[in-house]
């Protein structure tokens, strides 16, 4: 174990961000890391922003990640990636789900969903991985598995090999979804290695 690592999950209510974070935290604790997690639901039930901050290492004193301090940001939705980008370290890694969730103002046609979000991200961040988790989740037969696909991509990047992630998934998801989520995690691990 070494210094403290900071992981920021960002997205929209209903995307399974809390579950993905809890699976990560469970695995890190099982491996002996000191772990702190903070979650903010905002207007989650209405499609608002949801974030979780996970910090782990030898000794962690606070669950809060400051601006410019995240080693990795995992963005489950494009606009949320832009919204939270200032929290990424200059040499940090950004994992973005190439997925759009229109806000209420976009759905009511009061605003337009911004164009070129991925291109904008690529022009500002050199260490970025773009994943079409929705496409991969549809192949698995359940669009809701995007969260664990994104988690799998993160796990590949973190390279914490001493953890049995399949066991951790089994312990944290409902029985009827275990196989789906293990497959989703493996898809995420394999997808990120191709990018």
Automatic annotation (TrEMBL):
Name of this chain's protein: Indolepyruvate oxidoreductase subunit beta
Coiled-coil spans in chain: none
NCBIfam families for this protein: PRK06853.1-5 (NF005325)
Lineage, highest ranks first: Bacteria, Bacillati, Bacillota, Clostridia, Eubacteriales
Pyruvate/ketoisovalerate oxidoreductase catalytic domain sequence ranges: 13-189
Top-level taxon in the UniProt lineage: Bacteria
Entry keyword set: Oxidoreductase
């Amino acid at each position: 174990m070494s210094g403290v690592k900071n992981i920021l999950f960002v997205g929209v209510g209903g995307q399974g961000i809390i579950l993905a974070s809890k699976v990560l935290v469970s695995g890190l604790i099982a491996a002996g890391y000191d772990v702190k997690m903070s979650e903010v639901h905002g207007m989650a039930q209405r499609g608002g922003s949801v974030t979780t901050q996970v910090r782990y290492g030898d000794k962690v004193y606070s669950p809060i990640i400051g601006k410019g301090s995240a080693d990795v940001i995992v963005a489950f939705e494009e606009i949320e990636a832009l919204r939270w980008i200032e929290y990424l370290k200059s040499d940090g890694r950004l994992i973005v789900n190439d997925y759009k969730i229109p806000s209420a103002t976009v759905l009511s046609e009061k605003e337009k969903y911004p164009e070129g979000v991925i291109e904008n991200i690529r022009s500002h961040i050199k260490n970025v991985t773009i994943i079409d988790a929705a496409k991969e989740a549809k192949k698995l037969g359940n669009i809701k598995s995007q969260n664990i696909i994104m988690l799998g991509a993160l796990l590949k990047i973190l390279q914490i090999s001493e953890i049995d992630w399949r066991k951790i998934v089994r312990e944290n998801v409902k029985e009827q979804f275990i196989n789906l989520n293990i497959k989703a995690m493996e898809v995420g691990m394999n997808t990120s290695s191709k990018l």
